Amino acid sequence: MTDTRSASGRPLARTAARQGLTLAAVAVVQFMVSVDLSVVNLGLPRIAAGLGFSPVGLTWVIHAYALTFGGLLLLGGKIADRYGHKRVLMIGLAVFGLASLAGGFAQEPGQLVAGRALQGIGAAALSPAALAVLTVTFPTGKARVRAYGIWSAVNAAGGALGVLIGGVLTQYAGWRWVMFVSVPMAAVALALAWRGVTGAPPTAPDRRPDVLGAVLATAGMILLVFGVVRTDQYGWTSPVTLTTLVAAIALLAAFVRVERTTTRDPLIRLGLLADRSVAGANSYNLLLGAAMASSFYFASLYLQQVLGAGPTVAGIQLLPFAIGVIAGATTAIKLGYRLPLRTMLIIGGLVTAAGFAWFGFISADGSYLADVLGPSLVTSIGFGLCLGPVVSAATVGVAPSETGMASGLLSSSRQIGASFGLAALGTAAHARTGASTTIEGLTEGYALGMTLSAALLACAVLIAVAVLPRTRTAAPARGGGRDVVPEPE
Question: For the chain, which has fewer Cβ within 10 Å, the N-terminal or C-terminal residue?
Fold first, then answer.
């Protein structure tokens, strides 16, 4: 007789339906967060004109979100473990939606900056909570591979579509809609999470929280992101940047010391970082985030500044990037059940590096088909192959009480990588361009940025080879379990 009930005693059909709603909720959440990272970019000129931003003040529309989101991710992951993944996810979605609504109705610069900062706070809570929900809901087997494949496709598609959505909304509906667009997405995600996510009790031990560690880590992360994102105004060697980064490093070093000696519930259990899979995946993710952020930046600039495309046309021309990521993620789903995560990350990293190396040959008299479409498809397929496996590698085998912590750490490494990569590679590209404003000079700078991105992916592949353990996901038993089987060295 066929078993129609899951291990928890629920009918399998009901369990599958709930898992489907959970996956849909997490997908909408990730799409919303990814879109919000890039949706305001093309609307900045009209935002400045509409609210009277100064050139320096306008950068805070971007920085306010980056600072709060990147600085609070570790804390958000810990809070999700301590107070319940579903509860923190719902609160984060509510905060994000209300902040988006308030930002859309802003009447002066300070109100919009405050709305963006509040969006970042909400995203820092809901992003690790959503990823922890995904980890707990799909802990094993084919379902896990498929879930992470869908998550990775939605993640990158949101980043690519954010530019297009922002351009279209700004041009045809007004800049306020780049804020309003997140409100219905947050409402849909709230409804799906309410119905689909199981309200399990908190997974973290009920111990006194390490308040000092949380303060040090949050302050250190915020200062770190703050120092990096302002390198467009203050160079890497300026006293302002150096002082900020030194202070950030000192705070983070103090945080590590506190975590080693505290008798309270630590923000991050340092033993987690000793796990080869967690350490390797986060290092890989840091470099992947740096290259990914830079790819959109340099490709959009090349399309507009060199090839002469308008904002909306440039957004449309970047759509194949999203299609390539989806294709890569679909391939990762098919291969991920047969190949070790380590092998998937090596293959994906090599493909992505090849795409960036191709991008490095862009020319001032190039064309979209020859210089953008081909390399963007190769690069994006490589990204799609990497994104799901790197998340799975960073969370596989992590105790249920630490899934939020591991998810927050992974999101932090991606965000910090994006900030560092964009600032560092942007600086290198500007140094190559120098004072030149010619198309040839700009192209040389963008080509260098793409070539350096290829080098970052090559380093990521080396990390996968040297650090990640050789494990594979075995076929599930009849009851749906999974074993992690070491491969022979």
Answer: N
